[in-house]
Amino acid sequence: EHVVNRIAAGEIIQRPSNALKELIENALDAGATSIRITVKDGGLKLLQIQDNGSGIRKDDLPILCERFTTSKIKAFEDLSSLGTYGFRGEALASISHVAHLIVTTKTRDETCAWKAAYADGDMVPVKSGSKDSAPVPCAGNDGTVLAVEDLFYNTPQRLKALRSAADEYARILQVVIAYSIHNAGVAMSCKKASAGSSNATADVNTTVGASTLDNIGATYGEPVKSQLFEVAADSAEPRVKLRAWCSGTNYQGKKGRYLFFINNRYVDCSPLKRALEAFYSNFLAKGTHPFVYLSLELDPNKVDPNVHPTKKEVGFEDETEIVELVCERLADVLASQGD
Ligand code: ADP
Ligand code: MG
Which of 18, 21, 92, 144 most suits a substitution to test ligand 1, by most atoms within 8 Å of the C-beta? Predict the structure, then answer.
């Protein structure tokens, strides 16, 4: 049975960056304004995320890694109308099947934090040698620290499919960068754990109060930031709220970037990307690629809810109309502002 669960979990969590994306979304759902990430060996040795969100109630800890345990839906029918990040209750369960998971958490009304460990969906003793798997009291701040250790220790074929720690770390950073840009108002940091020293410099470090544009500048540099234009629309038909920062017609960037968010999830959207590429190919010099940060808020009922959890590609209704709307607004902005 464990083997079957492990294989299923390996489909959901294919690499460290998939796990981290789920953990970041959970922290954001818990209302965190500070998210601190520490990574060892490209996330294979350690992936730790500390947030200052709501915390998890001690009574909920025993079932935390049971499949479909979620505080975010009441009934299965709610699935299609759910607006928040998570909606499946599968992420932590899956992670516990392919890694050692240790959770330290404190809600505002607890006097101390509680620590619990998980393996294969179940709570297991925190201390090795102990038989008691109940959560143990410990010191801790309000919020949650989740440590994912030795990812894929029991699924060697998953490990083999990964390229290198450096490559996995680059993917992790890309996820952190995307969410830090999208979530202005949340301080996010990501650093490699270094033996001995706990104050290694962070590779991502955003602060509360910085805007999306500020965070783009901090990440991609002032020259990129200064060439961006704001594109926004609130359309009733098709119903969509668009917020974007897009490079202009004389953009000099060599590194193209597309950061798409649909209902606050970092996604791929091929039709949108293709349309933007075609749009910019009318202006940009060869070898030059645009920078586009773009957020769409859609009726959750119109976003395909059955996409595979890690399948970043997301589909939605009225796609053609919405993609057209994006390109029209972008054309208007670039025509009126010049550059
Ligand atoms: P989902 O996010 O789809 O509900 P998960 O497996 O990702 O499923 O998480 C299960 C549940 O654990 C969440 O619904 C939430 O109640 C709780 N949880 C997970 N991470 C956190 C966190 N960082 N802070 C508070 N609660 C959390
Ligand atoms: Mg989740």
Answer: 92
